[in-house]
Structure formats: C-alpha cells, structure tokens
C-alpha cells in the first residue's frame, strides 16, 4: 500500500510540476510584432469593493458596452489579400498618447497575418499587436485613439464573492452578434484548470474565476463585468464537455482582473512576460493520503494545506536554499499557500531576482528560508 502511494505521488508530482526546472518548466517563448511602450495601466487606484444597491445589469452594461469590441483575425490568402479566419472579443481599457489599448485572448489573435478591431458602432480599424502571453492566454493590441469614445475600468477581483451577479459581454459566434450580454453569478473565485498553448505546450494550469454566465465561442477575450460596470475578469475558456463526452452547461471561466492588470502592464512596458521559478516539481498536499502524510511526510496533523516538494532543479533556487523532497511549502512571504493555485499566484507577483521568504515543514519542524528567484520559466 505504501509503495503504491509513493509511486502515485511521484507520478502526480511529475505531471503537476509546473513551478520548477528542466523539462517541466514553462513560460513565454517569444513575442512577435512587438511595439512596447512605457505606458502603464492606471487601474489599481479605482478599485471598488462595494457596489451600489441600485446597480442593475442595465446600468452596468450601459457603462462599459461601448468599450467592448470584436477582434477579427485575418490570414493571408494571396500576395496582397487577406481572409478572415476567426473572430473573438476584446475590451478597450486605456487611451494614452497616440494609442488606445485593447486586451483580448492570445488564442484569438494566434497566427494572425492582420488584425482588425470592430468598434461598438460597427466601424472597423486596423490593430497592431503590442505583446502576447500564451501562459495566461492574454494579448494586448493598440488602435487609433481618435476612434475611441469609452474605456473600461478594472475592478478588484480579490473582492469578488461567490454568488455575486456578473455579466459576460462579447461577440458569441462572431461579430454578427456583437455586444451580446449574458447574466450569471460567480460560481467559484479560484479554479485551477488545465492550460495548453496552440502548439500543445502544457502549462500545468491556470487560476481562473468560474461563472455560470453563458460564454460561447466568440466571447473569448471579452469582459466579465460586475454590477458597478467594472471588468473583474477576461473570459477565456468554456468547458463544453466532460472527459466522458457528456455535455456540460453553465461552466465558463475568466482570467481574474488583478492578474490581467499585471500582465497587460508588463506586455505594454516590455512586450513580453518573464516569470521567476523556484525550481521544484510538486504535488498538492490534498492529493496525498492521510497515511502517507503521517508515514512519509511526517508532518503535524494540524497542517491541512500546502504543496509537497517532489524534486528540485540542481543548483536551482529551492535546491540552493536547502529544500528537500517531501518538504511541504505552506506560505510565501507570509501569504498562505493551500495548493498549486496559491503558490503560482504568490510567486508570479514577483520578478526575476527578487527574494521571497518561504515557510515550509521539514517533517515536524516548521521552518522559513530566504529564496532568491534566479531561475526563470522556459517553454
């Protein structure tokens, strides 16, 4: 029994090892057509934690609808001709200098030879790719600011609540149905769902908001909006079927706005995303049986959340800091880590060469160690 459990842990750790080194690293490969600027998104100062009691779906939609756009992906069909190959959605979030900025999904513009944005009034304008990030499935475009009348504000996704009403706005099934709106609730604040690139690269998972607001093909890149009319997420995926092939309804996913703001700021500033790594393969503590927690990990019974170190990259940050196989990480910089999603969230708040304090258990002993994030994620 114990041997089978150990094998299961090791296999799971190899599959779920997304924060580490070697073959299980992941990150930004390269960014094409970059036109980076130093402009930043001024959004954090306008967080709203409470929503007016008289706020309605109608008032929220009216506040943001003119900032929601369709994004048209064109492939080259001849020497000087282009053919539309796909459509998605996006939202204009800033006007600065000689550009207005649109956030959408990376997969919406993937492989595009030309990109157009269709505004709320039906006018189409050429868009330029500023930067993209396959891991978070986000991309930033820029367009002529003279055609933009409305920009969207970001809300604070850390303040959303399960059961809270939200709207999904976009172009389901294409621009013919542009500015469609659906209403639902927040079903879960944090879900870790499988994430892969267009090339099949496994990114281990994305931390997303789950909603039952209807999200269909073409909604990708559009905003998930609270009743204050603020963007709390960017719609990215729809679970259309289970592993058994059974149809599933009412399960849509959105990238949290706090993560979106961080990513788009970096894309506009640098044209790419560079992420730090601690150099480990891992498995969530919740996936380890109680018996194995007692006999293999030998941690106190009071520890009920964290990630188990299954391997370390030789001479990587964790290895240099002295972390060993079966150590259990429970916090980064004092912020609780209950699983892989928390670890990613806290780790990716930092930059390469930052130093973080990791709290962990080595068997029964609770320890802290300083770890310098000298290793970056690769794909």
From TrEMBL:
SMART domains: PDZ (SM00228). The chain crosses the membrane at residues 9-27. Its EC number is 3.4.21.-. One of its GO terms (biological process) is proteolysis. Residues 287-339 form the PDZ domain. This is Serine protease, DegP/HtrA, do-like. The keyword Transmembrane applies. CDD domains: cpPDZ_BsHtra-like. GO terms for molecular function: serine-type endopeptidase activity. Pfam families: PDZ_2, Trypsin_2. SUPFAM superfamilies: PDZ domain-like (SSF50156), Trypsin-like serine proteases (SSF50494). InterPro entries: Chloro_Bact_Ser_Proteases, PDZ, PDZ_sf, Peptidase_S1_PA, Peptidase_S1_PA_chymotrypsin, Peptidase_S1C. The keyword Transport does not apply. Belongs to the peptidase S1C family. PANTHER family: PEPTIDASE S12, PROTEASE DO-LIKE 8, CHLOROPLASTIC. It is an enzyme of class 3 (hydrolase). Coiled coil: none annotated. Keywords: Hydrolase, Membrane, Protease, Serine protease, Transmembrane, Transmembrane helix. The lineage of its organism: Bacteria, Bacillati, Bacillota, Bacilli, Lactobacillales.
